[in-house]
Amino acid sequence: xxxxxxxxxxxxxxxxxxxxxxxxxxxxxxxxxxxxxxxxxxxxxxxxxxxxxxxxxxxxxxxxxxxxxxxxxxxxxxxxxxxxxxxxxxxxxxxxxxxxxxxxxxxxxxxxxxxxxxx
Amino acid sequence: xxxxxxxxxxxxxxxxxxxxxxxxxxxxxxxxxxxxxxxxxxxxxxxxxxxxxxxxxxxxxxxxxxxxxxxxxxxxxxxxxxxxxxxxxxxxxxxxxxxxxxxxxxxxxxx
Lengths: 119, 111
Hints:
The structure holds two protein chains of two kinds. By secondary structure, chain A is an all-beta fold. Chain A has strands at 3-7, 10-12, 18-25, 34-39, 45-51, 58-60, 68-73, 78-83, 92-99, 106-109, 113-117. In chain A, strands 2, 4, 5, 6, 9, 10 and 11 form a seven-stranded mixed beta sheet that branches. In chain A, a hairpin with a 6-residue loop joins strand 5 and strand 6 (58-60). Chain B is built from no helices and nine strands. In chain B, the strands form two sheets. In chain B, strands 1, 3, 4, 7, 8 and 9 form a six-stranded mixed beta sheet that branches. Chain B has a three-stranded antiparallel beta sheet with strand order 2-6-5, with no helix packed on it. In chain B, a hairpin with a 2-residue loop joins strand 5 (64-69) and strand 6 (72-77). Chain B is globular. Chains A and B meet through strand 5 and strand 10 of A and strand 7 and strand 8 of B.
C-alpha cells in the first residue's frame, strides 16, 4: 500500500524557517517524481514544487521561488521541503504527492502537515 | 499563472447527473491532454478521480467521467450519491514555469 506521511509543520514567526519531510513507503520511491502542494485554510490547492526521481529537474511555483528548496534522499525514501523567509501567506497545509509516471498527474497524496506563520 | 476557472458550487439530487467545468487557456487545458480531477472531503487529502482528461484510476467508480473540448475540461458525475458531496478540483499541466495549475474548486452538494 502506498503511503506518504508528512511531518515538520508547526507554528513559526514571520521570517522564520521550517523543514518539512515526507516519508514514503509501499512503492519504489526512487522511480517516481514528487511534488509539494499546499492549501491555505478554507482555500484551494496551490502547487508549490516538483522534483524529478533523480533530482535532476526541479521546479517551483512563483510564490515560493527563491525561498523554498525541495530535495530528496532516495536511499531513505524521503522528500523534503526547506521553507525559509516565511510569510503569513505561507500558512497552509502542505501535502506531498506522487507524480504518475505516465503524465503530469498526482496519484497519491499524504495527509498533510500544517504550517502556521504568525507572530 | 492564473488558476483555472471552475464554478463555485454545483448541486443535484441523488441519482441525477452533474457536470463541473474547468476553463483554462491554450497554454494549459487546451494545449495538453494532462487534465486531472481531484475529490476532497473536509479535512482529508485530495484523491485522484480522473487523469489524462478521461482516464479513471483503479478503484474509482465508473460514475465519474471526464472530457475536454478546446480550453474547457469537464467532470461528470452520474447517479449522484450522498458520498459524492465534496470539493472537486481540476488541474492541468502548463507550459509556464508553474508546471501544475489547479482550478478554483467546486463544492458539490447532494440535495
